[in-house]
Amino acid sequence: MHIYLQPIGFATKNLNKMRRDIFQAIADPTRRAIITLIALQAMTPNAIADNFNTTRQSVSKHLRILTECKLVKQEQQGREIYYSLEIEKMKEIDKWIEQFRKIWETRFNQLDEVLLTIKKQKKC
Amino acid sequence: MLNEEKSRRPGNNLLFDFTVDKATKTVFVNREFAADLSLVWDAFTTQEILDQWWAPKPWASKTKIMNFEVGGRRFYAMVSPEGQEHWSIQKYTSISPKTNFKMLNAFADAAENPQLPGSDWDLTFSEQNGTTKVSIVIYNDSLERMEKMIEMGFTEGFSMILSNLEDMLTILSKK
Fold first, then answer.
1. Chain B within 8 Å of A25 (Cβ-Cβ)?
2. Which of A20, A105, A115, B45 has the smallest count of CB within 10 Å of its CB?
3. pLDDT tens-digit profile of A53-101?
4. CB contact at 8 A, B59 and B81
5. CB A26 to CB B160 under 8 A?
């Protein structure tokens, strides 16, 4: 699959840093699950931890990493801290992925042109 | 879970979809072309035609060696507008003329030393009413390959995002 990525690898060099941060953050299955949970609604660490069989400490650690990567934000409401998703940051990832699709799209649009040219030449 | 992005391109009815299955670490790309099967087959298997479209502009594809036969290979570079070359080897492992071919892809240096392991590609061609469909399956199985992908900025997270992000953004945009 990395070959398939090759054109993207060099098309997105300026995003190196972002990749390191965000993509390592979401390489972990628990963190991905947390993201999916809080995408629906802001939640307290306890409410998040209720969804996992791991310890509260482990969930806190994951939340800290996500916060450090600015994928989630904290909001104090009374005594409780609520975690929610940084939508703009998630959209950055979306844009990044879009480039992968674009590579194929561009490549195939070019092939359309080539096929058309060859077909015309054959008719002559 | 599959994330599917299907679109019919404006001006015609040709399919293009791009799918990632994170569970099997497989990428699927399907595309229809308004040309007969033998022409599309040639476009994927002939050096002269491949170099005209394989690299997304402004990059250029430069094939140094190509012998399309089982055990044969294509050794080519993607060349940046500044002239920087990124070499790759595609080794053909199976060929069923005008139906299917399989290849093993690997990055390489300019002296053709591959960086293994690579990725497995499976390309299937079929024609219906003058339209040719190409189905590409790119498979990547080992942990080493995953690590290679991380080197290229392609973590497991990428697959996850493709599977889930679109759904998530749909939910978010409704808020």
1. yes
2. A20
3. 889 999 999 999 999 888 899 999 999 999 998 888 877 766 666 666 7
4. yes
5. yes
Residues 6+ apart with CB under 8 A from A36: B164, B168
For the record, the structure tokens of B148 come out as: 């290679």
Q: Name chain B contacts of A100, Cβ cutoff 8 Å.
A: 18, 158
Q: Residue A84: which of A62, A58, A66 has the closest Cα?
A: A66
As a whole number of angstroms, the distance between CA A58 and CA A38 comes to 17
Q: What count of Cα atoms within 13 Å lies in the side-chain half-sphere of residue B34?
A: 14
Q: Which of B8, B27, B158 to mutate to test the interface with A (most CBs of A within 10 A)?
A: B158
Taking only the tens place, the pLDDT of each residue in A4-53 is 333 333 334 444 444 446 766 776 778 888 988 888 789 999 999 999 98
**Rounded Cα distance, B96 and B90, in Å:** 17
Distance of alpha carbon B155 from alpha carbon B113, whole angstroms? 24
Nearest CA in chain A to B78: A7
Tokens of B106: 């690997």
Residue A79: the pLDDT is 92
Contact B154 A36 (CB under 8 A): no
Considering only alpha carbons, which residue of chain B is nearest residue A28? B157
Q: Name every chain A residue with its beta carbon within 8 A of the beta carbon of B52.
A: 110, 114
